[in-house]
Write a structure and sequence with these properties.
Elements lengths: L1 H10 L4 E9 L4 E8 L16 E3 L4 E9 L2 E8 L2 E4 L3 E4 L13 H13 L2 H8 L3 H19 L9 E9 L4 E8 L4 E7 L3 H11 L1 H5 L3 E4 L3 H10 L4 E4 L1 H25 L3 H8 L2 H5 L5
Parallel strand pairs: 2-5, 8-11, 11-12
Antiparallel strand pairs: 1-2, 3-6, 4-5, 6-7, 8-9, 9-10
């Protein structure tokens, strides 16, 4: 009995009975046969309500657990289905994993924590999973956290920033919205056009849109048009990043024009000084 408790602690599971632990030569992994504690059986996988059994589902299945040293570990258990009065026939809830996941809670919580502190590629390499899997894990953990705490990211917004970012080497874009008062990302979606931004304001609602006092953005017309329609009382201002970028671009344009004029005007010394002065001109005078 004591050894089973030790295995439960090592595998990071609660309300779970460890029946047997063995090494699977074919999978090159430790496999622990487990079952939910009595009070955690026959619960809906979505809402957790006690429900009558329906069938045995697809039999036994495995969930990936955190590695034990350099060896992979799995939990193996039956996966029966129950008939929930609200959600119909679903796989029964298990205390060691989230619904519709092939990983234990400890594994997913670790992956989500790492994703906050390092790149998704690094997390995937460390945990030995696909990088797309890391994204799905983070989505599940975040959704559960917001649902359990009742967090509404769009509540109390007064000053927001809207911008687009590119990925896939500039071939795909995301529209992002941040809260200037908290510095947090509150919404993001694929695309960078009026239809994409309209989805944010549809979610925000007319009443909360009317409470916005300031919206910062670049000079994109598609952002200005939507902001003017959906929150006309808010002041639209240019964000500091783009103001600085426009100023440096204008300064570099003047430098190039002066360089060309010096070359054509027979001032080679001045032209040589200006040719390599791009970054020097961007610095503060005292530097």
């Amino acid at each position: 009995m004591q050894s089973k408790r030790v295995w439960a602690r090592l595998l990071g599971v609660e309300h779970t009975v460890v029946e047997q632990v063995e090494f699977d030569e074919d999978a090159d992994a430790i496999v622990a046969s487990v079952r939910p504690a009595r009070r955690r059986r026959r619960c809906c996988g979505i809402c957790g309500r006690r429900s009558p059994g329906f069938d045995q589902g697809q039999g036994r299945r495995r969930w990936r657990a955190l590695d034990l040293g350099v060896v992979r570990a799995f939990l193996e258990a039956d996966a029966p289905r129950v008939a929930c009065r609200d959600h119909g026939v679903v796989v029964a809830q298990v205390p060691w994993a989230r619904h519709d996941s092939g990983f234990t809670r400890a594994f997913e919580d670790t992956a989500a924590w790492l994703a906050v502190h390092t790149s998704r590629v690094a997390v995937a390499e460390l945990l030995r999973v696909a990088w797309r899997t890391v994204g799905r894990i983070v989505a599940r953990v975040a959704q559960e956290a917001e649902t359990s705490t009742g967090t509404d990211r769009l509540a109390g917004l007064l000053r927001i920033g809207i911008d687009e970012i590119s990925h896939k080497r500039g071939h795909r874009y995301l529209t992002v919205v941040v809260d200037h008062d908290t510095g947090r990302l509150v919404w993001a979606a694929p695309g960078h056009d009026e239809a994409t931004l309209e989805r944010f304001f549809d979610l925000l609602g007319e009443a909360r849109s009317a409470q916005l006092t300031l919206v910062s953005a670049d000079a994109a017309g598609w952002i200005a048009g939507v902001v003017a329609r959906r929150c006309p009382a808010a002041a639209l201002c240019l964000d500091p990043f783009h103001v600085v970028r426009w100023a440096t671009d204008a300064l570099d344009q003047v430098r190039r024009e002066t360089w060309n004029a010096a070359r054509r005007g027979g001032q080679p010394a001045l032209a040589r000084e200006l040719k390599g002065a791009r970054f020097a001109l961007w610095k503060n005078p005292e530097d």
